C-alpha cells in the first residue's frame, strides 16, 4: 500500500514567521511531487511542484526534496494570515501514471495575526 | 491553466436516488479525472474519464455505482447512483496541466449531502 503521510496539525505560526510543512512517502521510485493549498470550502490549488533533489523557490514558497530520505517539505516565508489553509502533499507512485496521485491527508496551517 | 466549471456546486439528495455532476472545461484536454473528498479526508481518485471509451476506475470504485461519460475533450459527467449517506462527499473534476508535468487543476467541486 503506497502511502503519503503528513502531520494533520494544526500548525500555528505567528505572522511573519516561517511555516515548515513536511511530507513523507513510501514509494522510493516516485519521481514527482506536488504541494496543493486548499482553503476551507474550496478546491485544491497547485502551488509548487518539484522533481529533483534539493530546493526549489517560488516567491515566498520553497519546496525541498530528499529522495534518499523520502521526504518533501514546503517552507512558507513571511507567513501571512491569508496563508491559513490546508496544505496537501501529492505523489504519483512509480508506474501509476503521471496524474494518478496519492494525496496526503493535509496539514492545516494557521497563521496568527 | 484551464478554467473548469462544475455543476451543481452543492446538492442534497435522498437515499436511493442518483446525482449527475457535470464538468465543463474551457479548452480541450486529454486527461480528465474525478476525485472524491470525504469529510475530513484527503482526495481519492475515482476514475479517469477517457474520451470515446469507457472510464478507467480505481480499486474500490465500480462503473455501476459511478458511471462516467466523456463525450468530447471539454466535457464529462459523473453520476453517483443509488445514493447512501456514505456517499456524502465533495466530488471534484480535475484536468491535467502542461504535458508530462503531472500538474493537476481542479474544478470548484460539488458538495453532495445524502439524507
What would your notes on this structure say?
The complex is a heterodimer of chains A (113) and B (115). Chain A is mainly beta. Chain A contains no helices and eleven strands. Chain A starts with a strand and ends with a strand. Chain B is mostly beta strands and 115 residues long. In chain B, 0% of the residues lie in helices and 50% in strands. Chain B has no helices and eleven strands. Chain B has strands at residues 4-7, 10-13, 19-25, 32-37, 43-49, 56-57, 68-72, 75-80, 89-96, 104-106, 110-114. At the A-B interface, strand 5 of A face strand 5 and strand 10 of B.
Key attributes of the depicted protein:
heterodimer, A: 113 residues, mainly beta, six-stranded mixed beta sheet, five-stranded antiparallel beta sheet, B: 115 residues, seven-stranded mixed beta sheet, 0% helix, globular
Can you count the helices of chain B? 0
Structural class of chain A: mainly beta
Question: Residue-averaged pLDDT of chain B, rounded?
Answer: 93
Q: Helical amount among residues of chain B, as a percent range?
A: under 10%
* Radius of gyration based on Cα positions of chain A: 13 Å
Cα end-to-end separation of chain B: 36 Å
Shape of chain B: globular
Helix content of chain A: under 10%
Give the structural class of chain B.
Answer: mainly beta
The main sheet of chain B comes to: 7 strands, mixed
- C-alpha end-to-end distance of chain A: 40 Å
Question: What does this entry show, briefly?
Answer:
By secondary structure, chain A is mostly beta strands. Chain A contains no helices and eleven strands. In chain A, a hairpin with a 2-residue loop joins strand 6 (54-58) and strand 7.
Layout of helices and strands:
The complex is a heterodimer of chains A (113) and B (115).
Chain A: E1 4-6, E2 11-14, E3 19-25, E4 33-38, E5 45-50, E6 54-58, E7 61-66, E8 71-76, E9 85-91, E10 102-103, E11 107-112
Parallel strand pairs in A: 2-11
Antiparallel strand pairs in A: 1-3, 3-8, 4-5, 4-9, 6-7, 7-8, 9-10, 9-11
Chain B: E1 4-7, E2 10-13, E3 19-25, E4 32-37, E5 43-49, E6 56-57, E7 68-72, E8 75-80, E9 89-96, E10 104-106, E11 110-114
Parallel strand pairs in B: 2-11
Antiparallel strand pairs in B: 1-3, 3-8, 4-5, 4-9, 5-6, 7-8, 9-10, 9-11
Amino acid at each position: 500500500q503506497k502511502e503519503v503521510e503528513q502531520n494533520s496539525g494544526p500548525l500555528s505560526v505567528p505572522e511573519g514567521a516561517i511555516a515548515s510543512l513536511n511530507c513523507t512517502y513510501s514509494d522510493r521510485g516516485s519521481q514527482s511531487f506536488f504541494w496543493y493549498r486548499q482553503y476551507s470550502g474550496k478546491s485544491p490549488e497547485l502551488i509548487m511542484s518539484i522533481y529533483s533533489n534539493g530546493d526549489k523557490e517560488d516567491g515566498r514558497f520553497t519546496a525541498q526534496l530528499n529522495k534518499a530520505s523520502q521526504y518533501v517539505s514546503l517552507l512558507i516565508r513571511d507567513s501571512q494570515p491569508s496563508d491559513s489553509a490546508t496544505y496537501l502533499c501529492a505523489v504519483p507512485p512509480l508506474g501509476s501514471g503521471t496524474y494518478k496521485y496519492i494525496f496526503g491527508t493535509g496539514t492545516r496551517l494557521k497563521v496568527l495575526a | 491553466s484551464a478554467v473548469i466549471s462544475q455543476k451543481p456546486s452543492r446538492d442534497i439528495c435522498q437515499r436511493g436516488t442518483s446525482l449527475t455532476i457535470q464538468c465543463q472545461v474551457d479548452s480541450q484536454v486529454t486527461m480528465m479525472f474525478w476525485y472524491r473528498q470525504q469529510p475530513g479526508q484527503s482526495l481519492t481518485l475515482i476514475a479517469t474519464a477517457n474520451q470515446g471509451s469507457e472510464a478507467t476506475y480505481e480499486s474500490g470504485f465500480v462503473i455501476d455505482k459511478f458511471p462516467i461519460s466523456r463525450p468530447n475533450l471539454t466535457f464529462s459527467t459523473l453520476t453517483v447512483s443509488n445514493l447512501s449517506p456514505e456517499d456524502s462527499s465533495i466530488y471534484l473534476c480535475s484536468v491535467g496541466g502542461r504535458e508530462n508535468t503531472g500538474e493537476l487543476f481542479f474544478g470548484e467541486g460539488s458538495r453532495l449531502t445524502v439524507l
